[in-house]
Design brief:
By secondary structure, the chain is an alpha/beta fold. It contains nine helices and six strands. The protein has a six-stranded parallel beta sheet, with helices on both faces. The longest helix has 24 residues, at 84-107. It is globular and about 65 Å long. The N and C termini lie far apart (49 Å).
Length: 251
Amino acid sequence: MIQTKPKQTWEDRVAALKTRQLPRHIAVIMDGNGRWAKRRGLPRIAGHREGVKSVREMIEAGKDLGIEAMTFYTFSTENWNRPRDEVSALWSLLVTAMNREIEDLKRNNVKVRTIGDLSALPPQPREEMFRAIRETEKNTGIVLTLAINYSGRSEIIYAINTLLASGVTSVTEDDVTNALMTKGLPDPDLLIRTSGEMRISNFLLWQIAYAEIFVTDIHWPDFRKEELAVALDWYQTRERRFGKVSEQLRS
Protein backbone atom coordinates (compact mmCIF):
# COMPACT_ATOMS: atom_id res chain seq x y z
CA MET A 1 0.00 0.00 0.00
CA ILE A 2 1.42 3.38 -0.98
CA GLN A 3 1.38 5.85 1.86
CA THR A 4 1.08 9.50 0.95
CA LYS A 5 2.91 12.13 2.93
CA PRO A 6 0.43 14.34 4.80
CA LYS A 7 0.21 17.85 3.42
CA GLN A 8 1.86 20.47 5.60
CA THR A 9 -0.43 22.99 7.22
CA TRP A 10 0.41 26.67 7.01
CA GLU A 11 1.35 26.55 10.70
CA ASP A 12 3.86 23.75 9.92
CA ARG A 13 5.30 25.82 7.04
CA VAL A 14 5.69 28.83 9.31
CA ALA A 15 7.46 26.78 11.98
CA ALA A 16 9.86 25.28 9.41
CA LEU A 17 10.62 28.64 7.79
CA LYS A 18 11.31 30.22 11.17
CA THR A 19 14.12 27.74 11.85
CA ARG A 20 16.22 29.55 9.23
CA GLN A 21 16.93 33.17 8.48
CA LEU A 22 14.02 35.14 7.10
CA PRO A 23 14.12 38.48 5.27
CA ARG A 24 13.42 41.54 7.37
CA HIS A 25 11.87 43.37 4.42
CA ILE A 26 10.10 41.89 1.38
CA ALA A 27 9.35 44.06 -1.65
CA VAL A 28 6.84 42.92 -4.26
CA ILE A 29 6.22 43.88 -7.89
CA MET A 30 2.62 42.73 -8.32
CA ASP A 31 2.44 41.86 -12.02
CA GLY A 32 -0.08 39.92 -14.08
CA ASN A 33 -3.46 41.16 -12.85
CA GLY A 34 -4.60 42.02 -16.37
CA ARG A 35 -3.33 38.77 -17.84
CA TRP A 36 -5.03 36.80 -15.07
CA ALA A 37 -8.34 38.47 -15.97
CA LYS A 38 -7.87 38.10 -19.74
CA ARG A 39 -7.35 34.33 -19.39
CA ARG A 40 -10.73 34.15 -17.71
CA GLY A 41 -12.54 36.42 -20.14
CA LEU A 42 -12.94 39.10 -17.46
CA PRO A 43 -12.27 42.85 -17.53
CA ARG A 44 -8.80 43.89 -16.36
CA ILE A 45 -10.15 45.49 -13.19
CA ALA A 46 -11.36 42.03 -12.07
CA GLY A 47 -7.71 40.97 -11.93
CA HIS A 48 -6.79 44.03 -9.87
CA ARG A 49 -9.71 43.32 -7.53
CA GLU A 50 -8.55 39.72 -7.04
CA GLY A 51 -5.01 40.96 -6.53
CA VAL A 52 -6.15 42.89 -3.45
CA LYS A 53 -6.91 39.51 -1.84
CA SER A 54 -3.32 38.46 -2.47
CA VAL A 55 -2.04 41.61 -0.74
CA ARG A 56 -4.24 40.85 2.26
CA GLU A 57 -2.96 37.28 2.44
CA MET A 58 0.68 38.42 2.13
CA ILE A 59 0.26 40.81 5.04
CA GLU A 60 -1.31 38.07 7.17
CA ALA A 61 1.50 35.67 6.23
CA GLY A 62 4.14 38.29 6.93
CA LYS A 63 2.64 38.87 10.36
CA ASP A 64 2.67 35.11 11.08
CA LEU A 65 6.33 34.90 10.05
CA GLY A 66 7.49 37.98 11.94
CA ILE A 67 8.51 39.90 8.82
CA GLU A 68 9.26 43.52 9.74
CA ALA A 69 8.20 45.22 6.51
CA MET A 70 6.50 44.55 3.18
CA THR A 71 6.43 47.03 0.30
CA PHE A 72 4.04 46.64 -2.64
CA TYR A 73 4.46 48.39 -6.00
CA THR A 74 0.88 49.62 -6.27
CA PHE A 75 0.92 52.27 -9.01
CA SER A 76 3.96 53.57 -10.88
CA THR A 77 4.31 57.00 -12.47
CA GLU A 78 4.29 55.17 -15.82
CA ASN A 79 0.91 53.60 -15.03
CA TRP A 80 -0.78 56.92 -15.84
CA ASN A 81 -0.26 55.93 -19.48
CA ARG A 82 -2.79 53.11 -19.16
CA PRO A 83 -6.35 53.56 -20.51
CA ARG A 84 -8.16 56.30 -18.61
CA ASP A 85 -11.02 53.99 -17.60
CA GLU A 86 -8.60 51.50 -16.04
CA VAL A 87 -6.75 54.22 -14.11
CA SER A 88 -10.03 55.61 -12.80
CA ALA A 89 -11.15 52.12 -11.77
CA LEU A 90 -7.85 51.58 -9.94
CA TRP A 91 -8.39 54.68 -7.81
CA SER A 92 -11.92 53.56 -7.00
CA LEU A 93 -10.57 50.15 -6.03
CA LEU A 94 -7.95 51.74 -3.77
CA VAL A 95 -10.66 53.68 -1.92
CA THR A 96 -12.86 50.60 -1.57
CA ALA A 97 -9.98 48.39 -0.42
CA MET A 98 -8.72 50.84 2.21
CA ASN A 99 -12.25 51.38 3.54
CA ARG A 100 -12.74 47.63 3.82
CA GLU A 101 -9.31 46.79 5.25
CA ILE A 102 -8.55 49.65 7.62
CA GLU A 103 -10.16 48.11 10.72
CA ASP A 104 -8.33 44.80 10.19
CA LEU A 105 -5.06 46.69 9.68
CA LYS A 106 -5.56 48.52 12.96
CA ARG A 107 -6.62 45.37 14.79
CA ASN A 108 -3.53 43.51 13.51
CA ASN A 109 -1.14 46.30 14.52
CA VAL A 110 -0.12 47.03 10.90
CA LYS A 111 1.53 50.40 10.26
CA VAL A 112 0.66 51.89 6.84
CA ARG A 113 3.14 54.04 4.93
CA THR A 114 3.32 55.28 1.36
CA ILE A 115 6.14 56.25 -0.96
CA GLY A 116 5.60 58.27 -4.12
CA ASP A 117 3.87 61.54 -4.94
CA LEU A 118 0.35 61.41 -3.54
CA SER A 119 -0.34 65.01 -4.56
CA ALA A 120 -1.19 63.90 -8.12
CA LEU A 121 -3.91 61.47 -6.96
CA PRO A 122 -7.60 62.34 -7.19
CA PRO A 123 -8.86 63.82 -3.87
CA GLN A 124 -10.74 60.78 -2.55
CA PRO A 125 -7.97 58.15 -2.85
CA ARG A 126 -5.41 60.68 -1.62
CA GLU A 127 -7.45 61.45 1.49
CA GLU A 128 -8.13 57.75 2.06
CA MET A 129 -4.40 57.04 2.10
CA PHE A 130 -3.74 59.95 4.47
CA ARG A 131 -6.44 58.56 6.76
CA ALA A 132 -4.90 55.07 6.74
CA ILE A 133 -1.48 56.52 7.54
CA ARG A 134 -2.88 58.70 10.32
CA GLU A 135 -4.98 55.96 11.94
CA THR A 136 -2.14 53.40 11.98
CA GLU A 137 0.83 55.66 12.71
CA LYS A 138 1.19 54.43 16.31
CA ASN A 139 1.04 50.74 15.38
CA THR A 140 4.21 48.79 16.08
CA GLY A 141 3.78 45.63 13.98
CA ILE A 142 4.59 44.90 10.35
CA VAL A 143 5.12 48.03 8.23
CA LEU A 144 2.99 47.98 5.08
CA THR A 145 4.34 50.41 2.48
CA LEU A 146 2.34 51.11 -0.67
CA ALA A 147 4.32 52.61 -3.55
CA ILE A 148 1.74 54.87 -5.21
CA ASN A 149 2.54 57.19 -8.11
CA TYR A 150 6.09 56.03 -7.47
CA SER A 151 9.29 56.11 -9.54
CA GLY A 152 12.66 54.89 -8.31
CA ARG A 153 14.52 57.49 -10.37
CA SER A 154 12.25 60.29 -9.14
CA GLU A 155 12.83 59.17 -5.56
CA ILE A 156 16.60 59.44 -5.97
CA ILE A 157 16.21 62.91 -7.51
CA TYR A 158 13.95 63.83 -4.57
CA ALA A 159 16.66 62.70 -2.14
CA ILE A 160 19.38 64.65 -3.99
CA ASN A 161 17.28 67.82 -4.05
CA THR A 162 16.50 67.41 -0.34
CA LEU A 163 20.21 67.15 0.43
CA LEU A 164 21.09 70.13 -1.81
CA ALA A 165 18.42 72.22 -0.09
CA SER A 166 20.08 71.46 3.25
CA GLY A 167 23.26 73.12 1.98
CA VAL A 168 25.58 70.11 1.87
CA THR A 169 28.43 70.05 -0.62
CA SER A 170 29.20 66.33 -0.43
CA VAL A 171 27.22 63.29 0.68
CA THR A 172 27.71 59.72 1.81
CA GLU A 173 25.60 56.65 1.03
CA ASP A 174 24.03 56.98 4.47
CA ASP A 175 23.06 60.57 3.69
CA VAL A 176 21.24 59.47 0.53
CA THR A 177 19.58 56.53 2.30
CA ASN A 178 18.26 58.83 5.02
CA ALA A 179 16.91 61.31 2.46
CA LEU A 180 14.88 58.68 0.60
CA MET A 181 11.15 58.17 1.12
CA THR A 182 11.92 54.80 2.73
CA LYS A 183 13.90 56.39 5.57
CA GLY A 184 13.67 54.21 8.67
CA LEU A 185 13.04 50.97 6.77
CA PRO A 186 15.70 48.31 6.26
CA ASP A 187 16.58 47.74 2.61
CA PRO A 188 14.62 44.86 1.06
CA ASP A 189 16.32 41.50 1.48
CA LEU A 190 13.98 39.84 -1.00
CA LEU A 191 12.31 41.25 -4.11
CA ILE A 192 9.48 39.14 -5.55
CA ARG A 193 8.19 39.71 -9.07
CA THR A 194 5.21 37.76 -10.35
CA SER A 195 4.09 36.93 -13.90
CA GLY A 196 7.55 36.05 -15.20
CA GLU A 197 8.81 39.48 -16.25
CA MET A 198 12.59 39.80 -15.87
CA ARG A 199 12.94 43.49 -15.00
CA ILE A 200 12.68 45.75 -11.96
CA SER A 201 10.55 48.46 -13.59
CA ASN A 202 11.97 51.53 -11.84
CA PHE A 203 11.21 50.14 -8.37
CA LEU A 204 13.36 50.89 -5.29
CA LEU A 205 16.46 51.34 -7.46
CA TRP A 206 18.70 52.43 -4.58
CA GLN A 207 17.28 50.12 -1.94
CA ILE A 208 17.48 46.78 -3.80
CA ALA A 209 21.22 46.97 -4.47
CA TYR A 210 21.76 43.64 -2.65
CA ALA A 211 18.26 42.17 -2.64
CA GLU A 212 17.75 38.58 -3.72
CA ILE A 213 15.37 38.59 -6.70
CA PHE A 214 12.74 35.86 -7.02
CA VAL A 215 10.75 35.75 -10.26
CA THR A 216 7.77 33.44 -10.69
CA ASP A 217 5.48 32.84 -13.68
CA ILE A 218 2.46 32.88 -11.36
CA HIS A 219 0.21 35.91 -11.91
CA TRP A 220 -0.26 38.12 -8.87
CA PRO A 221 -3.92 37.18 -8.14
CA ASP A 222 -2.81 33.55 -7.76
CA PHE A 223 0.16 34.39 -5.51
CA ARG A 224 -0.91 33.49 -2.00
CA LYS A 225 0.83 32.40 1.21
CA GLU A 226 1.88 28.98 -0.12
CA GLU A 227 3.61 30.72 -3.06
CA LEU A 228 5.27 33.07 -0.58
CA ALA A 229 6.54 30.02 1.32
CA VAL A 230 8.12 28.73 -1.93
CA ALA A 231 9.84 32.09 -2.43
CA LEU A 232 11.11 32.03 1.15
CA ASP A 233 12.35 28.45 0.80
CA TRP A 234 14.35 29.66 -2.21
CA TYR A 235 15.60 32.72 -0.32
CA GLN A 236 16.89 30.53 2.47
CA THR A 237 19.11 28.62 0.01
CA ARG A 238 20.84 31.83 -1.08
CA GLU A 239 24.31 32.68 0.18
CA ARG A 240 24.22 36.42 0.73
CA ARG A 241 27.84 37.52 0.32
CA PHE A 242 27.53 41.31 -0.11
CA GLY A 243 30.68 41.39 -2.24
CA LYS A 244 32.66 38.92 -0.12
CA VAL A 245 33.65 35.36 -1.03
CA SER A 246 32.16 32.26 0.57
CA GLU A 247 35.27 31.49 2.60
CA GLN A 248 35.08 34.86 4.34
CA LEU A 249 31.54 34.16 5.48
CA ARG A 250 32.54 30.84 7.01
CA SER A 251 35.64 32.07 8.82
